[in-house]
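User: Hey, my collaborator sent me this sequence without any context and asked if I could get a structure. I don't really work with proteins. Can you help?
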Amino acid sequence: MADKMKRKKAAIQKELNNIRKQEEKLEQSVQNWEEPQWKETLEKKIPSRTLQTLEQVFGKAFLIIFDKGTPLLEKSYNIESIGEDFEVNDYAARVKGRRKELRKIKQTVQKSGMRDIAITTAEGIGLGIFGIGLPDIVMFVGILLRGIYESALHYGIDYHAPTERILILKMMEAALAKGEEWKLLNKNIDVLLQSTVSYTEDGKIFLGISYDSKEFDAQIKRTANSFAMDMLLLKFVQGIPIIGVLGGVSNPIYYHKIMKYVKLKYQKRYLMKLQWEYEKNGALENEK
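Assistant: No problem. I've predicted the 3D structure and written it out in structure-token form, which is a compact way to encode the shape of the chain:
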């Protein structure tokens, strides 16, 4: 029994080490990133009011999807089926505990995201041809949150909880950050993941942090600002007929970038949860 538990812990640690290597690659990429000169030059020509408007639109898009759009998004995937898949995969991971079982959820999540990339590509290009920029933002945010919701379900996470929405916003902000800001935001998210050690009787996971409506509103603004700053030129161009297709093409690029980070953190969180439970159970056994 003890040897089997050691093998399970070793498998989890190897997967966590693999995640750490991926995080180091992400950190390297954002540390070495430099704003292209042409982009800086063009952004200076964009009216200052545009950034403020874009930030407001992103903020409203987040609120719209969170408040009213979530039920609509949930009609596009089978919550019950995904929940059953997680229970099967989670049971296999706990019983066998090999890296093969631990990776099964990750593989399922990766497959589920391919459809959304295709949708956001078609949506962005289609609206870009007609010079439709701002309405595209609401659609893009909806598709993005749909992908995040579905990924959360695959890891047994209830994304309806207010604290989960704050985490989602923080992850989206961090995914677009650069340099030292990325390091700081990523570290803060890891602290939140580490605090995820409290569970309800039905096994649902909730962050070990308290919900503050003011903090939620402030995080909406921070995330909206990060999106507006990073996508300013592309969304401005998307408002120009025909040439706007260039802006629309950026949607799948941003979708992939953000989802890559979010999926990595959800996977890390799941593994940390298993690791904590094994440690807890081991401590209880030693007390007997």
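In plain terms: The chain has a mean pLDDT of 78. You can pass these tokens on to your collaborator as they are.
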